User: Fold this.
Amino acid sequence: MIVHRLTVLLLVVILFGAPLFAQNQSSAKPKPKVVVIGVNGMEWDILRPLLVQGKLPNLAKVIKNGTYGKLQTVSAPNCPRVYSTIFTSTKPEEHGVTGFIVGGITANTNMLKEEPIWSYLSKNGVTVGMANVPATFPVMPVNGYMISGMLTRGKNCEDGVLCAPKLSEVEGGDPVYPAAMKAELLKNVGDFYIDCERMPSAEQLRGHESEVIDAWLARVNLIREQQTKLFDYLLTQHPTDFTWVVQSCEDRTGHWLYPIAPYNAGYNPKISGVRPDAFPSQYVAFDSVLGSVLKHVDENTYLFIISDHGIKPLREFEETDPHAHMDHEKTTPVIAKHDFADGDDVPGSFIAMGPGIKHDLRLMGFEASVYDITPTILHIYGIEQPKQMRGHVLSEIFESASDKVAMQK
Ligand SMILES: [Zn+2]
Assistant:
């Protein structure tokens, strides 16, 4: 009910309020430009050695020119649970999207009980573009466009959980807002996969390990190429004040191809020994995607690179935990996971660069949390933090109170 009311309100604002707002602002400076890139499950343990080896030149550049550190996440983190927390800066029990499945139904935007960031931005005349952000299916109206991501349902992916329908195969809801944009994307970008590929089952792998692993990784490469093309198209043809794009193949690769050692839980030489570089290679590939996005990021653009959680090898002692190894598993032999009861064991990543953001500053401990992302972005646009939001504006990442981003704590 709450969401329906919000949707109606938002529509009214977009249809009638936004032009008035724009007129009032016509003499003011243009709105800040913010680009957020989400990398699901981005893990510092894997990133750090790659950075030292110089294999992530674009990410290294952003880190050098920005502020970076761990991003504290929620307990038992998984994508829909954390992303909805990021959207709303409220607890999972408050916003309602507590996991992949809620009350027997795949998590979807109709379950969202708190107002999300795209609604606040749209109401305030900020143009919004979002692509492949998890848990945004069915898409909601915004002052711009929205293309759904993880948990989109479709052909061969009826439950929407960790599978990949193509844009033309989506069923049970709209994957694109405005709806007319779907035909434009099919024509100019192609029929892209809207999320990452489903992981193979133990049965599919048995006896064909190398072949199945290589075929799966080839599909992941294809999906990343399609996403790169999509993001570049959107940033070029549909520039918005606020843009949020997300990649999700990194996390999925980590779950079953994490480079573990023979003494780790779940090690199977037939699988774990085939492509030990598969997971680190995902970040090298991501670095190229970042390079493509950076072409659209000038010195006046704020860039945030965030992950909802990290990912770590399984632990023997959690084998007795009834909730152990629940995420993504289905029938895949997973060797790494992130839904540990204590979210501090699998922190996400936070990297920010932009006007007035401190250079080469490492945040120690948990100075930044998934709850702080939305308040900080709203703040950049001069929008006061709504009362229900539990995070705070990350004022510590900005140079001084005199920056155009006012301080508020
Ligand atoms: Zn995962």
